[in-house]
Structure formats: structure tokens, C-alpha cells
């Protein structure tokens, strides 16, 4: 039972369980299909259109544009209805198949004589008033013109409560379910004057933003419902009137040859001889091409008698849409191509694609297919991860995503089908990311256990490197330039004699722990603890170009640590009035080539460093007491870290070395080096060293007199120089006497 539970809660089972939960949640979200997913999907389809816009083909569609030039010449919009009646008459005479107004005439013409009567001042003669009242009404003149031609008017869907429904000029026949039962309903409409809509050949909705998101017109609904009857849109009604058709055939689920998947939907609408595929709600996806100037004719040209002969071939047999591109009239819309186009252009492009059969189709089964793809692709990732690993699964996922995107692009390019590859692809990436992230977290937790277990013995950097590259645990080493540090406690024997074994261990832990932290803070690797000593090195296992400087800074930090511990009586020596109340350490540093690596046997080895550079560092540390300095470095170390505050300690004979080695005491960092006091000390110390080299004992003693007040803390350091000068003076006198 315990083995079964351990297997069940194993790392891979836990990862698979979490991945399955993520997949179930994301698949459920796709089946619900919230608005933000629809928006993302529609942005993908916009990109497809930008990648391959519709190929323009000439069609019997023309736009009469009420542009800025027309408004500047004829006057402010709206124009008198008599002017529009004149336009209708001209277009009718030119043989337009349909004259379509992308606008609503909901209020009487304010320039009609009847509207002007109330604006005459008092005292106006009866003859004038009678003459004006006998003038024909502008709206009636416009209505008469409408009655003479194939005119289609528009109505606008608005918010509020319906007061007057638009007239319906066409009939609707249904194949399958009645769309009124499942279409969204509009509650109000802004309709035309009865004087105008009664004689019109067709009436359709001009609304293009019904259901569109982000302000982009991606589709136009071909039919609308108020809950009692259907209404066509302007595009559909223009096409019907141009063909002389009497109505529409709306095909929905349940019709012969149409599968019923449980969701009621319109599949296509027959308009005369054209069958138009639609979305569930009877919308036509607009397949845009880029705006073209040859689609437009300025209204100014229509009113110019000299242009009529040139316009004849542009208007005869055409569906003529009348709209505006003037920015001030605020009829600009955003297309799927990201262009700002007049609203009338959207109706024109919709007519062009219907006439040429250039459709985009979003079948009613697309949502179900995408939901299934989401689940299947996610399941493949879950099954592949334990079988072929993260890298293999990532490669497989990339192939799947490429297949989804490529297949979707192909279907759009060749068939005009809109299938979303993004959501299934994103879910597969999310499942993979969640699985690998959890696997990484669990693996890191195991690593943390290893780190905690071994960080007591190895530096954090070494532990990390061993985690990432365990092959380094093999035996062997390499020669590289390194800086080695040795630290030893001065007077350790007297200290140990005044403490019990338990107190001695506590003392060492209190001291060595912060000293180790100071080393590791500067990137050092602690090689070993040897009783009361520490051996550490820099530039291995991690490469540290400035290893000498970091080692020097670590040494200074160690001295600061000891000073702080003494000041705070961290060892309790002062509180207990022990004989030894302060702790002192000596530190030696040397830079040179050494061999570093794993050394020992195949069963037990240690990451360490060996070589002559190590021996010199140890001998330098042993010389600290004799030199009277706490931190001594070799000439090689000083050369690689020249920015610190050094004083030459002279050439010191080291055990095992045939020649003396020049050593330097470090007093502080670059901040101390730039102070005026240290510069005076450094200058005087330089003269002392030179005097000794010149064997000028009198000058050397004179410099010592100056130096001692400048460096009261270095009495031991300069005491050795004083003894050395005395020995040198005796040698000189002895040599002189011998001669």
C-alpha cells in the first residue's frame, strides 16, 4: 500500500495530474467561449486578411460620394430633398439598376416651404405667404422621384423602445428552422418618413456594427429580427432590387442537407440568383480589399451636365450606393485591414464579394472542431512529456503548432475558411509550460535538499555548479591562475587552555562562521578548515577575472569581522574576565598558477587546490606575526590588485624558499588609499624602504621617527623595521671593522 501511494504521488504522476487539470479548465473555457476569446480569434482572422486581401474584380457596383468637394460647391449637408430628387432622376435616367441611400431620412426637410412658413417675420404680405404655401413640398418631390426609380432606403437600429417599425418591401421564405426564434432582437429603429419609404422599392438596415467588437467591422448582418418579423440589411436589399427579385430564402439548420448539431443557425441566404453563406446569425464576413478610387464618383459630377455622357457607362446597370466620405459627417469605419473607410464602402465591398462569390466562411461546426483540437493537442503533450522528455515534447509541440497554423492559413488561402489555430496552440504551450514548470519546481526542491545537505562543506557556487554539471565529480584537475588565502588565529593555544572543549567548539563556530561568510561573499571557495585555520581560494570552480582583488577585499572584511566580534564581546571573554580578552588573526594571500580539481580516491574525494602557490600563501600567513601585520600579500597579488592601500613589508625569507619574497601589508581599500593621511604615510614609508635599500641607517631611523606618529596602530610593524635597522647597522659596523 505504501509503495502504491508513493507511486501515485510521485513526481511524474503529480505533473500529469496538474497538466490534466489545466487542460480540462482550458478546454472548458473554449467551450464556453467568452468574449475575450472571440476577440482574440477575430484579431487572428484580421491578420489573415491583411496577409491576403481580397483580389479586386470589377463588379457592377458604384459609389456616388458626397465628398468634401461636393459639400463645398453645393452647400452644407443635409442638402434639400429636391436636390436629392434631382440626383435620383439623373441616376434613373442613366440606367442605374438600384439607387441605394446609405442614410436615413427620418425628419422632414427643414428647407421645405411648409417648414419655412413659420420662420417669416410678422408683417410678411399675404401674397408672399400664399405663394410659398403653394410651392411643392420637398419631401413629396423626393418621394415622387423615388417612386420613378429603383430606390432603396436605409433605416438604423438604435436603442430604446420601438415607436414605428420600418416597412418591409420583401418577402422571406424559410428552409429549416424559423430564424426569428433564435436571432438576437433589436428593440428600436430610426426609420424614414412615410412619404419616402412608401414609394421605395426596397428598405434595408444601414447598421454595420451590430455585434462587431473593438470598433472593427468584420461582418454585416444580412437579416435582422425584432422578434416578430425579419428585416434585410441594405446590402441584401440593394442586390435584391437590382435583380428584380421579390424576396429571400433563408436556409437554417433542419433544412434538407443541413446537419443539426443542437445549435440553431442560419447557413446561407438566397438573394435572387446568389446564395450567400453566413454565420449562425445570418452575418456575412466581409472579405476586404484595399480602398480604390475607381469605386467612387463624386456627387459633384452627377450634377454637372457636362459629365453625364462620361457617367453613362459608369452608372448603367450598376448598383449605385449613395454615401459620404467627408470626415465631418462621421461615417468612417475601421475595416479588418485596419483602414478607415466610409460606411458606404463596406456595403459596396460586401456586394462585390457576393457578386463574384469571394466568400469567407466561419462554419457553425468550427467552434466544435476548435474545442476538440484544443483537447487532443493538449492530451498529446501530456502523453509525450514522460515518454520523450521536455526537449522532445517541445519539438513535437512546435511541429503540432506549425501544423495547426499552416493548416489554418491553407484553409483560409484556398477555401476562405476561418479556423482558429491560436487557442489550441496556446493551450498546448500552456500545458507544456505548466508541466515543465512544475517539474522544474519539484526538481529544484530536490536540488535544494542536496544544497542544504552539502552547503555545510562546499561553497554555494561549487554546489550550484555540481548540481548543473555533475560530471565534474570525476577525478582530475586543471592548472589555472588562482589566489589562495590562509587564515590562522593568533595565540590559539592560550585561548584553548582557558576554555572547555564545548566552549572551544562554540568559540570556533562563532568566529569561523562569519569569516567564512566574508570569504564566500567575495566569491571565494572554502577549501578546508584546519583546526583554527581556514584555507580558501578564488577563480575556481567559477572563473573570476578580478580574483586577486576579491581575495584582498575578503581579507579586509575578515579583519573587520574580528574587530566587530571583539568590540561586541561576542566570545564572552571580557565578561568572564579571561586572561585573553581579544582575538587576533593573521591572513596570507598569494596569486599564482595552481592545480585545482577533485582529488582523492574514486570513492571519496575533495575539491581542492595544490601547488607551489599554495605553499607560498601558507608561508606568508605564517610570517604575519613576525612582520607585525594582520594581512600580508605577495608581490604577485599586489600587482593584480593595485587599487588598494599597501605598505611594503620588505623581502621576507620564507620557509622552503631559497630566496626572500617581497611582501606587502594591506591597510585598507581604495577609499583609504586616496586620503591625505595615508598618502603622507605611504610617501614616508617609501623613503624608509629606500633608505634601507641604500643601507643608510641614519636616514632610515629619521624616517621611523616620522612614521610612528603617522601610524600609531602599526607599532609592531615598524618595531620590526627598527630591529632590522639595528641589525643592519651592526652588520655595517662589523663589516667596517673587518676592513
Account of the protein in words:
This protein is an alpha/beta fold. It folds into 4 domains: 2-51 and 364-449; 61-116 and 132-356, no CATH class; 469-670, Alpha-Beta Plaits; 675-739. It is 47% helix and 19% strand. It contains 26 helices and 25 strands. Strands 18, 19, 20, 21, 22, 23, 24 and 25 form an 8-stranded mixed sheet that branches. A hairpin with a 2-residue loop joins β19 (525-530) and β20. The longest helix has 50 residues, at 366-415. The termini are far apart. Mean pLDDT is 86; it is low at 1-9 and 471-475.
Q: Round the mean pLDDT to the nearest integer and report it.
A: 86
Task: Tell me the number of helical segments per DSSP (H or I, 4 or more residues long).
Answer: 26
By DSSP, the count of extended strands is: 25
Global morphology: elongated
Q: Any idea how many domains?
A: 4
Low-confidence stretches: 1-9, 471-475
Task: Quickly give the structural class.
Answer: alpha/beta
Kindly provide the radius of gyration, computed on alpha-carbon positions and rounded to a whole number of angstroms: 47 Å
Main sheet properties: 8 strands, mixed
Measured by DSSP, the beta-strand proportion falls in 15-25%
From the N-terminal CA to the C-terminal CA, the straight-line distance is: 100 Å
Helix content: 40-55%
Amino acid at each position: 500500500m505504501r509503495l502504491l501511494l508513493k507511486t501515485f504521488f510521485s513526481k511524474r504522476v503529480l505533473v500529469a495530474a496538474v497538466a490534466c487539470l489545466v487542460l480540462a479548465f482550458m478546454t472548458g473555457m473554449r467551450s464556453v467561449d467568452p468574449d475575450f476569446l472571440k476577440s482574440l480569434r477575430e484579431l487572428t482572422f484580421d491578420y489573415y486578411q491583411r496577409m491576403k486581401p481580397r483580389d479586386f474584380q470589377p463588379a457592377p457596383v458604384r459609389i456616388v460620394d458626397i465628398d468634401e468637394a461636393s459639400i463645398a460647391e453645393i452647400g452644407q449637408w443635409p442638402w434639400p430633398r429636391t436636390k436629392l430628387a434631382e440626383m435620383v432622376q439623373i441616376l434613373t435616367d442613366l440606367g442605374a439598376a438600384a439607387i441605394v441611400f446609405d442614410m436615413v431620412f427620418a425628419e422632414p426637410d427643414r428647407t421645405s416651404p411648409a417648414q419655412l412658413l413659420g420662420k417669416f417675420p410678422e408683417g410678411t404680405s399675404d401674397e408672399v405667404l400664399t405663394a410659398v404655401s403653394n410651392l411643392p413640398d420637398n419631401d413629396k418631390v423626393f418621394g415622387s422621384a423615388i417612386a420613378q426609380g429603383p430606390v432603396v432606403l436605409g433605416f438604423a437600429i438604435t436603442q430604446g423602445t420601438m415607436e414605428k417599425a420600418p416597412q418591409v418591401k420583401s418577402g422571406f421564405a424559410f428552409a429549416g428552422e424559423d430564424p426569428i426564434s433564435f436571432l438576437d432582437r433589436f428593440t428600436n429603429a430610426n426609420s424614414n418618413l412615410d412619404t419616402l419609404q412608401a414609394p421605395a422599392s426596397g428598405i434595408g438596415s444601414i447598421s454595420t456594427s451590430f455585434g462587431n467588437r473593438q470598433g472593427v467591422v468584420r461582418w454585416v448582418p444580412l437579416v435582422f429580427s425584432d422578434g416578430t418579423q425579419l428585416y434585410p440589411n441594405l446590402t441584401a436589399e440593394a442586390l435584391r432590387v437590382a435583380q428584380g427579385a421579390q424576396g429571400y430564402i433563408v436556409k437554417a439548420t433542419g433544412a434538407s442537407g443541413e446537419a443539426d448539431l443542437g445549435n440553431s443557425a442560419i447557413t446561407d441566404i438566397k438573394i435572387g440568383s446568389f446564395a450567400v453563406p453566413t454565420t449562425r446569425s445570418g452575418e456575412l464576413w466581409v472579405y476586404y480589399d484595399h480602398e480604390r478610387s475607381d469605386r467612387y464618383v463624386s456627387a459633384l459630377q452627377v450634377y454637372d451636365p457636362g459629365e453625364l455622357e462620361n457617367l453613362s457607362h459608369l452608372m448603367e446597370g450598376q448598383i449605385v450606393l449613395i454615401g459620404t466620405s467627408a470626415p465631418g459627417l462621421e461615417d468612417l469605419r475601421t475595416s479588418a485591414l485596419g483602414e478607415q473607410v466610409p460606411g458606404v464602402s463596406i456595403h459596396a465591398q460586401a456586394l462585390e464579394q457576393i457578386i463574384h462569390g469571394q466568400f469567407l466562411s466561419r462554419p457553425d461546426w468550427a467552434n466544435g472542431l476548435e474545442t476538440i483540437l484544443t483537447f487532443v493537442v493538449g492530451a498529446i503533450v501530456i502523453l509525450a512529456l514522460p515518454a520523450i522528455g521536455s526537449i522532445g515534447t517541445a519539438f513535437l509541440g512546435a511541429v503540432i503548432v506549425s501544423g495547426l497554423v499552416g493548416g489554418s492559413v491553407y484553409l483560409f488561402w484556398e477555401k476562405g475558411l476561418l479556423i482558429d489555430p491560436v487557442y489550441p496552440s496556446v493551450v498546448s504551450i500552456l500545458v507544456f509550460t505548466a508541466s515543465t514548470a512544475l517539474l522544474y519546481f519539484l526538481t529544484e526542491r530536490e536540488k535544494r535538499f542536496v544544497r542544504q545537505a552539502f552547503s555545510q562543506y562546499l561553497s554555494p557556487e561549487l554546489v550550484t555548479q555540481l548540481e548543473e554539471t555533475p560530471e565534474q565529480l570525476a577525478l582530475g584537475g586543471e592548472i589555472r591562475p588562482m589566489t589562495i588565502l590562509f587564515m590562522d588565529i593568533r595565540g590559539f593555544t592560550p585561548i584553548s587552555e582557558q576554555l572547555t572543549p564545548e566552549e572551544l567548539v562554540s568559540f570556533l563556530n562563532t568566529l569561523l562562521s562569519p569569516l567564512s561568510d566574508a570569504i564566500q561573499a567575495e566569491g571565494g571557495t572554502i577549501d578546508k578548515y584546519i583546526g583554527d585555520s581556514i584555507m580558501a581560494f578564488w577563480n575556481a570552480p567559477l572563473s573570476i577575472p578580478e580574483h586577486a582583488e576579491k581575495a584582498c577585499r575578503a581579507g579586509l572584511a575578515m579583519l573587520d569581522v574580528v574587530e566587530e566580534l571583539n568590540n561586541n564581546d561576542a566570545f564572552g571573554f571580557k565578561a568572564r574576565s579571561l586572561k585573553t580578552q581579544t582575538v587576533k588573526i593573521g591572513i596570507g594571500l598569494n596569486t599564482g598558477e595552481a592545480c585545482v580539481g577533485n582529488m582523492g580516491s574514486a570513492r571519496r574525494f575533495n575539491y581542492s587546490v595544490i601547488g607551489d602557490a599554495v605553499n607560498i600563501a601558507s608561508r606568508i600567513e605564517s610570517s604575519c606575526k613576525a612582520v607585525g601585520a594582520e594581512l600580508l600579500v605577495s608581490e604577485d597579488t599586489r600587482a593584480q590588485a593595485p587599487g588598494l592601500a599597501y605598505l611594503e613589508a620588505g623581502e621576507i625569507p620564507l620557509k622552503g624558499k631559497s630566496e626572500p619574497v617581497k611582501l606587502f601589508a594591506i591597510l585598507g581599500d581604495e577609499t583609504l588609499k586616496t586620503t591625505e593621511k595615508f598618502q603622507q604615510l605611504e610617501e614616508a614609508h617609501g623613503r624608509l624602504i629606500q633608505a634601507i635599500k641604500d643601507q643608510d641607517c641614519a636616514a632610515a631611523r629619521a624616517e621611523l621617527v616620522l612614521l610612528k606618529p603617522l601610524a600609531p596602530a602599526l607599532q609592531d610593524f615598524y618595531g620590526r623595521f627598527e630591529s632590522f635597522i639595528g641589525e643592519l647597522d651592526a652588520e655595517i659596523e662589523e663589516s667596517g671593522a673587518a676592513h
